Amino acid sequence: MLVNLREILWLAQNHNFAVGAFNTPNLECINAVLAAAEKLNVPVILSHAQLHEAVAPLAQIGPVMVEAAKRAKVPVCVHLDHCETLDYMQQALDIGFTGVMYDGSTLPYAENLTNTKKAVAMAKNYNCGVEAELGALASREGGEAVGSGPVYTDPEEAVVFCAETGIDALAPSFGTAHGIYKAKPVLDLDRVKVIAERTSLPLVMHGGSGVSPEDYRKGIANGLRKINYYSYMSRAGVQAVKALLGAEDVTFFHDLALAAQNAMEADVEKALRVFTGL
After folding, report:
1. What's the predicted TM-score (pTM) here?
2. Of 81, 103, 168, 267, which is the active-site residue?
3. CA 65 to chain CA mean position, Å
4. What confidence tens digit (pLDDT) does each residue in 204-246 have?
5. How many domains would you assign to the chain?
6. In the annotation, is 81 catalytic?
7. Structural domain span for residue 174
8. DSSP label at residue 51
9. Cα-Cα-Cα-Cα dihedral of 183, 83, 26, 43, to 10°?
10. What letter does residue 17 receive in the DSSP assignment?
């Protein structure tokens, strides 16, 4: 069933778990995520990142995501991830997305604040929840570096930002990075706890792939209610295709797609078990 971001985060908050948010730039990803969530009977978020526009145009993949969510047996939010322009956000709202994440984290604070306020006002007309980011990760969505390291979120600044914008969820920077980790990340999870307590909002982990189960659990205990996860799921699909091509003389592309889908489903299930404490 299709639900909005506020509803799904309310479930996570009240049952002390984190909902998994998975980028789904193709049908195999959508099927893998929903199959795993329905198997475990847990809520889930299907996400589309603006970065993936060239891979899967929002106008094409968005309606597919919304329809799949409506047909699902579990609560599903369809969410726009790392939206950097309000025009693009409007497209998602018109399609029927029930969550949007405006990302002004690389902008000056005042500009991020102003644009986030506009995003909240836009989404209100669609009964759509809004997530925003304060601070900046060590890499952008897709693994592109943006500097020498993360810009950690200031808890005091977060309190003001959340109060003035009226957002429903905050993605703070506390040491994660997008993409595949080359070394174990060092996370400031105490900062997460302080921000969660001071803002009283559900917090979001970006760059969630590759974090240890122990750090996931501590982060959830400290207030993380949404964990973004894509890179390692996608890698699992690639590894399955490579294995199949190495073992068989494959004729049909759909056999490769199904192998990737099954492997991604198994990876998503593993992640969801950690996020929900199953």
Report:
1. 0.92
2. 81
3. 14
4. 998 877 788 999 999 999 999 999 999 999 999 999 999 999 9
5. 1
6. yes
7. 5-276
8. G
9. 80
10. -
